């Protein structure tokens, strides 16, 4: 009896005797099954291999990025956000070991785990049980949960206050329940938005983009991108972190607005002639 982890996306499944028939995350059109076929591992095998470790890097005061090296699954990072006496793990990763637990506890532990969307659910239950921390997922994405747990709380509506200075906002788009985490006290009070890839920082880090599927290059409708930009316009943030080690370091809200305008112009055929 063990919990199997999909090697392609890094999402963990409940205890079972046999391998799952398929990964429900990867067989959906926003993700993909490895051309070589479905492959599985376990957290125990990852730990025993000695191949993996988590790098914890301070990005700014009160914010730490946690990344597994070498890359595993999709390769996203999680973030530990230190609020005023309330720490949130934003998004999640598959690998967890005793060294990571000790490091995180030295930083104050985890009071809550919040997820942007299903691609980053990974080993969220493992993290929740280790730190006795509730998980917050928007109810619109609840049916994507691969490993049910009493630690999981499905929230509804457009925002959820985790603490006085840490608020979840549902933007939809990439997934219907797609959420971002607003930290207004971050960046010396100028505000930080952590977006996973609900809003994605691109190669030119002065810009962002929006997609229904990133690996399969399926765009979002213009009206949805406009709605996302209009919603975040009202939030105070000057810096934006995505899940893939990229940052819009300053003027981030302006970057979102400009990027949404460019994206919509491209979809409507007015940005270029080709």
TrEMBL record:
Keywords from the UniProt entry: Hydrolase
Descriptive protein name: MBL fold metallo-hydrolase
Gene3D superfamilies (UniProt xref): Ribonuclease Z/Hydroxyacylglutathione hydrolase-like (3.60.15.10)
InterPro entries hit by this protein: Metallo-B-lactamas, RibonucZ/Hydroxyglut_hydro
GO molecular function, one term: hydrolase activity
Domain Metallo-beta-lactamase: 75-244
Cleaved signal peptide residues: none
Keyword Hydrolase on entry: yes
Alphabetized PANTHER family for the sequence: METALLO-BETA-LACTAMASE FAMILY PROTEIN (AFU_ORTHOLOGUE AFUA_5G12770)
């Amino acid at each position: 009896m063990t919990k199997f982890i999909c090697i392609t996306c890094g999402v963990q499944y409940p205890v079972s005797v046999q391998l799952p028939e398929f990964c429900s995350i990867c067989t959906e059109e926003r993700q993909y099954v490895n051309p070589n076929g479905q492959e599985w591992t376990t957290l125990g095998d990852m730990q025993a291999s000695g191949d993996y470790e988590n790098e914890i890097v301070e990005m700014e005061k009160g914010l730490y990025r946690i990344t597994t090296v070498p890359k595993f699954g999709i390769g996203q990072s999680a973030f530990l956000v230190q609020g005023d006496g309330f720490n949130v793990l934003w998004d999640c990763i598959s690998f967890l070991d005793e060294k990571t637990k000790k490091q995180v506890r030295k930083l104050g532990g985890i009071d809550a785990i919040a997820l942007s969307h299903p691609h980053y659910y990974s080993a969220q239950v493992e993290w929740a049980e280790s730190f006795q921390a509730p998980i917050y997922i928007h109810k619109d994405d609840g049916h994507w949960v691969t490993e049910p747990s009493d630690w999981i709380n499905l929230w509804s509506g457009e925002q959820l206050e985790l603490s006085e200075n840490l608020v979840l906002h549902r933007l939809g788009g990439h997934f219907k329940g797609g959420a971002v985490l607003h930290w207004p006290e971050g960046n010396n009070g100028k505000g930080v938005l952590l977006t996973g890839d609900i809003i994605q920082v691109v190669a030119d880090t002065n810009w962002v983009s929006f997609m229904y599927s990133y690996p399969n290059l399926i765009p979002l409708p213009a009206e949805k991108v406009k709605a996302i930009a209009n919603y975040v316009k009202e939030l105070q943030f000057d810096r934006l972190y995505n899940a893939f080690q990229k940052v819009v370091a300053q003027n981030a809200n302006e970057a979102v607005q400009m990027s949404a305008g460019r994206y919509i112009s491209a979809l409507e055929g007015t940005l270029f002639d080709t």
